[in-house]
Design brief:
Blueprint (H helix, E strand, L loop, with lengths): L15 H19 L3 H41 L4 H10 L11 H5 L5
């Protein structure tokens, strides 16, 4: 057995097993640092839920606006016709348009430039 002399420290040469163990330990530490914790995942889940709720609310608002617009269009189509439309329906029945108003028949004439 070799004993260390005064001033020398005994060191063992690194063997391959120590190198492999060191590499594995370092790799595990790197992976551990990169992994999300349960708290991180919980916060991420809460953020996604909040974002999803906001997006769903926005889509519902858009759908409601479209519904209102369609209702307005339907009411407009089903409402009593305007004066010009009354003149058109009257002319279709053979009744002349009221005086002082431009009937729809006059509006329907082609304009030649």
């Amino acid at each position: 057995m070799i004993e260390a002399t005064e001033g020398e420290q005994m060191s063992t040469p690194p063997n391959d097993n120590d190198k492999v163990l060191g590499f594995i330990a370092e790799t595990i530490e790197v992976i551990r640092d990169r992994m999300a914790t349960k708290d991180n995942l919980t916060r991420l889940e809460a953020r996604f839920e909040a974002k999803l709720k906001a997006e769903i609310t926005a889509v519902r608002g858009d759908i409601e606006q479209v519904h209102i617009r369609l209702d307005n269009i339907e009411r407009t189509l089903n409402s009593p016709r305007s004066v010009g439309s009354e003149d058109q329906s009257a002319s279709q029945r053979g009744v002349p348009a009221r005086e002082g108003q431009a009937g729809s028949a006059a509006l329907a004439r082609p304009v030649i430039f």
